[in-house]
Recover the amino acids of this structure.
């Protein structure tokens, strides 16, 4: 895959007016599929991971259990106890970002079981016979862990590769600022990228970005023990008022497979073969949709 990605524009069927992110419990997969997955509507599920041992994760537990473990952060490698101390104060501190749980904490694999039905089927793993594609999709199939202190994330974005994101908050709160896909004309998207040019949605420069005044944000707080389904194409950023620990599962299946295939076609290192690869992947998706 190329290092400079091209991101096709999202087409929305979700008008911004009167959209709120609902909180649901005891949500059956049939209801989820009908009301949220295929309509591509976000939802917070309050009991998706109640059986996870990860429900008991705390900074103190990580500090005690992995005190001398070396972890990789955006400020370099450091001991876990040092990292925990650095993220529990008033300053942002380091950020353990998007680390594959199976690689960083392999002994915690059973802490994120059983797999919620809402992320199944997930077609990101497996062998797709084309080496770079298999590698790319399997890289996205890992459960990622995010661990940080108080901070504002400046980048308004949509998720990579056309995936849905299933984000579970294990400790602390996370404040989301969300924009439906039809708000994109007001968000000043970086050309051929998945980020907005606006550095801070709470303090925008309306002289530089006048259309942003028309954007209609949805604001919601994700509490510990809750999970949010963020469909592909929805713009979002977050604020963390204190120490935060969360995991993310990326999802692709028949509900968003065309977006993933489109992304891969636009970002192939083999442009002449890319249309053939796309036909192959669409065919794979067709049969997966029948048998999964």
């Amino acid at each position: 895959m190329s290092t400079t990605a091209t991101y096709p524009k999202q087409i929305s069927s979700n008008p911004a007016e009167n959209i709120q992110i609902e909180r649901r419990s005891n949500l059956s997969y049939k209801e989820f599929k009908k009301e949220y997955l295929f309509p591509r509507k976000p939802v917070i599920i309050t009991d998706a991971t109640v059986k996870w041992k990860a429900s008991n994760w705390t900074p103190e537990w990580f500090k005690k259990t992995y005190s001398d473990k070396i972890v990789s952060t955006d400020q370099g490698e450091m001991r876990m106890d040092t990292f925990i101390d650095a993220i529990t104060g008033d300053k942002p501190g380091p950020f353990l970002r998007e680390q594959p749980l199976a690689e960083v904490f392999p002994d915690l694999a059973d802490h994120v079981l059983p797999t919620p039905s809402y992320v199944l089927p997930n077609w990101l793993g497996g062998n797709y016979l084309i080496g770079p594609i298999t590698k790319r999709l399997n890289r996205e199939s890992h459960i990622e862990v995010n661990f940080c202190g108080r901070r504002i994330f400046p980048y308004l974005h949509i998720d990579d590769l056309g995936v849905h994101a299933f984000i579970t908050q294990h400790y602390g709160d996370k404040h989301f600022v969300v924009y439906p896909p039809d708000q994109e004309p007001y968000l000043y998207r970086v050309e051929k990228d998945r980020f907005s040019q606006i550095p801070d949605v709470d303090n925008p420069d309306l002289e530089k970005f006048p259309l942003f005044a028309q954007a209609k944000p949805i604001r919601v707080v994700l509490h510990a023990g809750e999970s949010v389904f963020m469909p592909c194409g929805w713009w979002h950023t977050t604020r963390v008022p204190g120490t935060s620990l969360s995991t993310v599962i990326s999802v692709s299946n028949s509900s968003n497979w065309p977006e993933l295939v489109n992304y891969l076609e636009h970002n192939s290192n083999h442009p002449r073969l890319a249309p053939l690869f796309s036909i192959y992947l669409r065919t794979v998706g067709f049969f997966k949709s029948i048998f999964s």
User: Anything to note?
Assistant: The first strand starts at residue 22 and ends at 24.
